[in-house]
Amino acid sequence: MKPAAPDGPPSPKLADFLCFAVYSANLAYGRAYKPILDKLGLTYTQYIAIVALWEQDDQTVSGLGEKLFLESNTLTPILKKLETMGYLTRRRDPQDERVVRVGLTEAGRRLREQGLNMTLVKQTGLPVEEFARLQKAVSRLRDNLIETMGSREA
Fold it and tell me: Start and end of every HTH marR-type domain (predicted)?
């Protein structure tokens, strides 16, 4: 962006961009979650895949990808690694061989006991109510952007 002309409006600062605030908060979250995830031996994307399976076990890979906002070519290696680690199984759907279903193993279910209470609510410094409002607002922002982009592509 060009600097403002001496008689024009001031140039926006990086800190004024909501997209940068969301992006940099995501990076900070990643760094803050690292010690927690290291204890579980998981990456963040592996962790969210497991959490989604705790929420709904035995789902299709495509359904899981939609929940996680991940394309199949990104999700498949994550699931393969989690399968190798013994946390889940992948199998063809007997009703439709083109569909792959994924489900937790007993070891994957046991991870819940370790990982469920590992949150960063306290570390954010936000009161619980404000944390919940912020989470809902960011989710609404994401959903609105997706909806807007979807209507533009149609």
Answer: 15-143
Q: How far apart are CA 4 and CA 21, in angstroms?
A: 22
Q: How far apart are CA 122 and CA 125, in angstroms?
A: 6
Domain 34-114 adopts which CATH fold? Answer: Arc Repressor Mutant, subunit A (1.10.10)
Q: Which of 143, 132, 117, 115 is nearest to 53 (CA)?
A: 115
pLDDT digits (tens, 9 = 90+) for 78-115: 999 999 999 999 999 999 999 999 999 999 999 888 87
Q: How much is the pTM? A: 0.83
Read out DSSP for 62-119?
A: HHHHHHHT--HHHHHHHHHHHHHTTSEEEEEETTEEEEEEEEE-HHHHHHHHHHTT--
Q: Is the pLDDT of residue 4 over 60?
A: no
